[in-house]
Task: inverse folding
DNA sequence: GGCACGATGTGA
DNA sequence: CACATCGTGCCG
C-alpha cells in the first residue's frame, strides 16, 4: 500500500528512521522497479546549520517549505543528484536524504541507477505515477550515527546522530 | 586498504 | 568559491 500524506507530515526525526525498509518504487522504461531503503539522513529546519534551509527561503530550498510528501532534489559537485523526501508541516523546512537502497549504497549512485534528476523536483510521492513509497514492516535493527560530509555545519549539528542505517 | 585528487554545474 | 559525492590512481 502506498504511503500517504500522514506518513510524511511528521517531524523528520520520526519519519527518517521509519523510512528504513520502506519500498522505493520507480517507473522506468515502462517497467516498475522496487528497492528497500537502507540508509537515510535527517535535515531539520532553519536552525540546523547542515540543512540547506539554514540559509532561508531560496529558489532551491523553496520546496522544503512545502508540507511533507514532496521530493527535493539538487545537483551536487556538478554531477550527482541528491534525492530527498520533504517532511513535516508547511513552513517548517525539513527533508530526509536517501543515502542508500538495497544494492546501491551512496546517494549519488542510487539516483544515477534510478535516473532521478531535476525533473523530480517537487514531485508528489502520494500522487505521482512514476515514483512512490510502499509500506512495509518497520525495521527495528538500525543504527543512528552522525551525518556525512557536513563538517562545515559546526557543533552541535556535526555530532547529531541523524544518519540512520539498517544493520 | 587508505589517501589525494579531479570532474563539473550551480547557488549565494 | 564552496558544495549532503564518487571513481581513479598511486602507494608499497
Result:
Amino acid at each position: 500500500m502506498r504511503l500517504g500524506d500522514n506518513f510524511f507530515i511528521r517531524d523528520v526525526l520520526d519519519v527518517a528512521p521509519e523510512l528504513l525498509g520502506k519500498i522505493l518504487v520507480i517507473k522506468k522504461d515502462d517497467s516498475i522497479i522496487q528497492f528497500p531503503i537502507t540508509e537515510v539522513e535527517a535535515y531539520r529546519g532553519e536552525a540546523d546549520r547542515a540543512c540547506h534551509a539554514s540559509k532561508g527561503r531560496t529558489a532551491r530550498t523553496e520546496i522544503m517549505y512545502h508540507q511533507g510528501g514532496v521530493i527535493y532534489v539538487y545537483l551536487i559537485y556538478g554531477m550527482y543528484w541528491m534525492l530527498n523526501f520533504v517532511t513535516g508541516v508547511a513552513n517548517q523546512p525539513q527533508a530526509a536524504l536517501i543515502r542508500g537502497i538495497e544494492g546501491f549504497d551512496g546517494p549519488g549512485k542510487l539516483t544515477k541507477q534510478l535516473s532521478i534528476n531535476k525533473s523530480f523536483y517537487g514531485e508528489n510521492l502520494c500522487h505521482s505515477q512514476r515514483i512512490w513509497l510502499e509500506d512495509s514492516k518497520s525495521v527495528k535493527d538500525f543504527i543512528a550515527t552522525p551525518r556525512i560530509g557536513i563538517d562545515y555545519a559546526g557543533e552541535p549539528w556535526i555530532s547529531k546522530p541523524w544518519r540512520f542505517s539498517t544493520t
User: Anything to note?
Assistant: The mean pLDDT of chain A is 97. The longest helix of chain A spans residues 12-19. Residues 5-166 of chain A form a domain with the 3-methyladenine DNA Glycosylase; Chain A fold (CATH 3.10.300.10). Residues 41, 43, 50-52, 74, 76-80, 82, 84, 97, 99, 106-109, 147-150, 152-153 of chain A lie near DNA strand C (CB under 10 Å from a C1').
